[in-house]
Design goal:
By secondary structure, the chain is α+β, with helices and mostly antiparallel strands. It contains ten helices and 30 strands. The longest helix is centred in the N-terminal third of the chain and has 14 residues.
Length: 539
């Protein structure tokens, strides 16, 4: 309560013009007032070409489900500018309803609407995204060990809900009729009826009274994990690895310079968002072709008229945020548009600092990435180094790995000596020597005596079969219990895949997904398995 009072007092001082510790005016952040289509529009232009600026999605009081004045939130984060974030339960518990991702961490997971996002190179994203949350137990992502959740850090008034609660959530009481699984350091520590505290080193998975049987996938002492994936409105998977900051809102207003507003397509049902005659003060975040990000508030418009204003302002892309009394815009120490209520989150612009740099060494591998530690380990050992774009290094965790890349990684990981090969397609290529090393070591083989197929994607079963051979040649015993595989490997790989199971390398997962033998292997999944294999032989 004291914190909220202090925040409210700070906001009042700012509005009254009393000097505060606000960030001074900055050349790359320019407030403006313009008349567009008969409306007086308040805007802030942000120069994304300035490498000293960063754009972040932030939560009030650093907790999901809290609210505070927009100005206080901006001040606390040292922001030059801030605009209110996405929709929330303004008249009840203050919980957000849309996605919020901060520095790679999903603070809250929403299920509808368009999203604004931005990566560490200040490249923005605007689009419709639909999430799903999948979980695993015991190292398996297949039935009966898999599970799903409705959301992250959201309390549902629904007995059929399954939700994940992390230390970033404001703690509220969980129903006594439900069941709660406690996961600490990736392992199930206990399973209780009703409520319990959120561990600082893990999370809760809460099952409503109607879905208690779903908790049967968990056992105390077993590993547990989850992942979030996104798909477009057409169902196509979307790669969000590098988009470290996201704020959900909606509807999408402008795309490619054209008005595309369609609230129904984003599952909006509230007449405030679907009606052409429901007008209020509305906000949007947009981007212009001169690489200026724009925060804007527009009075007395419907969402359709808001889209027209965004287009008139020459936005190439734009997405709406929450509206009405929540609409607020702040810049250089004062409000340009004063919100009528506290907000749960916001998008801010501030001076870039060390906190925006991921400790993995890659701008697209954040600390909450399931493969983070493995990727960081391999980088430190000089085994996988990613690619450099400008001054930033990318790992591309969801990118498919080729056979040539795998040959290079294996050579570096296990310090393989030079060898010989007869592959005409590898002679004179960048992977010429690596092909010789892995073939001479007996770890990889070509398609034929003359074809290595270095540019072809490597499959999951190929990676596992190869690593099983590596472990066998280095004396790792195959003493663990063999398992039936839900997705059977090819006949040529079956023996090696089951060898990998008995060596303790895999259960039936490949990275953060079920093992699908013939699927192309992603770099993050390869990193996890390679790191595990290296540890087993002391490298």
């Amino acid at each position: 309560m004291k914190q909220k009072v202090a925040a409210a007092l700070l906001a009042a001082l700012i509005v009254a013009g009393v000097p505060t510790a606000a960030q001074a005016a900055y050349a790359g952040v320019a407030p403006s007032t313009q008349t567009v289509l008969g409306r007086t529009v308040q805007l802030v232009y942000i120069n994304l070409n300035d490498p000293n600026l960063e754009v972040k999605a932030v939560s009030s009081e650093n907790k999901v489900g809290e609210t505070e004045p927009l100005a206080a939130l901006a001040q606390r984060n040292g922001a030059f500018a801030a605009i209110n974030g996405g929709y929330f339960n303004a008249y009840s518990d203050g919980q957000p309803l849309t996605v919020v991702r901060t520095n790679g961490k999903f603070m809250h997971n929403g299920s509808f609407g368009a999203v604004f996002g931005i990566n560490a190179l200040n490249k923005p994203f605007f689009g419709r995204m639909y999430p799903s949350i999948e979980g695993s137990t015991g190292g398996s992502w297949s039935w009966p060990n898999n599970w799903t959740a409705w959301g992250i850090n959201h309390y549902y008034d629904n007995a059929s809900a399954i939700s994940i609660l992390t230390p970033d959530a404001k703690k509220r009481a969980l129903p006594a009729s439900g069941k709660t699984v406690v996961v600490q350091n990736g392992v199930v520590s206990k399973i209780v009826n009703g409520d319990t505290a959120i561990p600082s080193n893990g999370y809760l998975v809460h099952f409503g009274a109607n879905v208690l049987s779903s908790a049967n996938a968990f056992s105390v002492g077993e590993k547990a994990s989850y992942k979030i994936t996104y798909r477009s409105s057409s169902g196509k998977p979307m790669n969000v690895d590098a988009i470290g900051n996201m704020m959900g809102g909606g509807p999408l207003l402008v795309s490619g310079g054209a008005v595309v507003v369609d609230p129904a397509a984003e599952k909006f049902t509230d007449p405030k968002q679907t009606s052409r005659t429901s007008r209020s003060t509305r906000t949007f975040i947009g981007w212009r072709s001169d690489n200026r990000l724009v925060f804007a508030t527009v009075p007395n418009v419907s969402v359709y008229e808001l889209a027209d204003v965004a287009k008139a302002l020459k936005m190439t892309h734009a997405v709406g945020m929450d509206s009405g009394a929540t609409a607020g815009l702040y810049a250089n120490g004062s409000y340009l548009t004063t919100p009528g209520r506290e907000v749960p989150n916001a998008v801010i612009v501030r001076k870039r600092d060390a906190s925006s740099v991921t400790t993995s060494g890659y701008v697209d591998v954040f600390n909450d990435n399931y493969a983070y530690q493995a990727i960081a380990n391999l980088k430190q050992k000089g085994v996988m180094s990613g690619e450099v774009v400008g001054t930033s290094r990318f790992f591309n965790p969801s990118k498919t790995m080729t056979r040539a890349e795998l040959a290079a990684v294996l050579t570096q990981a296990f310090a393989l000596p030079a060898g010989k090969h007869t592959f005409s397609d590898a002679k004179g290529s960048w992977y010429d020597s690596f092909a010789g090393s892995v073939v001479s070591a007996g770890y990889m083989a070509g398609y034929s005596a003359t074809q290595f197929g270095g540019n072809d994607p490597v499959t999951e079963e190929q990676v596992i079969a190869i690593l099983a051979r590596v472990l066998a040649k280095n004396g790792v015993a195959a003493t663990q219990k063999d398992l039936w595989m839900q997705n059977a490997p090819s006949s040529w790989a079956e023996k090696d895949v089951h060898l990998a199971i008995k060596q303790g390398l895999i259960v039936d997962a490949f990275g953060d997904k079920p093992f699908l033998p013939k699927d192309q292997a992603q770099r993050a999944g390869v990193a996890v398995l390679l790191d595990a294999a290296m540890k087993k032989i002391g490298k």
